[in-house]
Specification:
single chain; globular; 169 residues; three-stranded antiparallel beta sheet
Length: 169
């Protein structure tokens, strides 16, 4: 099925440990959207109880009922707002990362310090050096395979267009 991919940037909210960070997210819109929610994941590492190391986000609006709260009336900008709210107010009772969750619950100062350090390390570079960072992403296995499948799809379309233009005198 045809899926559309998009990338968006979320800015870390003021008064959160993610402040001043720029976080890249990947959005995959399924064919059955809006009856199925888009898949959204963080490409930028983030230190958060509800976001795992693969960037997957535990959020009810990203899941179909009965477990989730996705409705066809929601759209991507609503989801991004919900993700920003989750960044500002983690939900430690529904964690993907148990360690970070208990740290958030029982040692909040340490959590805030770690989250700030991660933001500085991972989410600030994008502003300074966007080119080398893209290369880094391409070297890692998962991103490359995703990239190449997308390119293949795009390539086949381009091929068709090129053939058309070749036929023209």
């Amino acid at each position: 099925g045809s899926m559309t991919f998009g990338h968006v940037e979320i800015l870390g909210g003021a008064d959160t440990p993610y402040e001043k960070g720029i976080f890249n997210l990947e959005i995959v819109v399924p064919e059955r959207y809006p009856f199925e929610p888009p898949k959204i994941r963080f490409l930028t590492p983030i230190y958060h109880p509800n976001i795992d190391s693969a960037g997957r986000i535990c959020l009810d609006v990203l899941k179909l009922p009965p477990k989730g709260a996705w409705r066809p009336s929601l759209n991507i900008s609503t989801l991004l707002t919900s993700i920003q709210l989750l960044m500002a107010e983690p939900n430690p009772d529904d964690p993907l990362m148990a360690d970070i969750s208990s740290e958030y619950k029982y040692n909040k100062q340490l959590f805030l310090q770690n989250a700030r350090e991660w933001t500085e390390r991972h989410a600030n570079q994008q502003r300074r050096v966007s080119k080398p960072l893209e290369e880094k992403i391409n070297q890692s296995g998962t991103a490359t395979t995703n990239g190449s499948t997308v390119q293949k799809r795009k390539g086949s379309n381009m091929g068709r267009e090129e053939k058309k233009s070749r036929l023209d005198p």
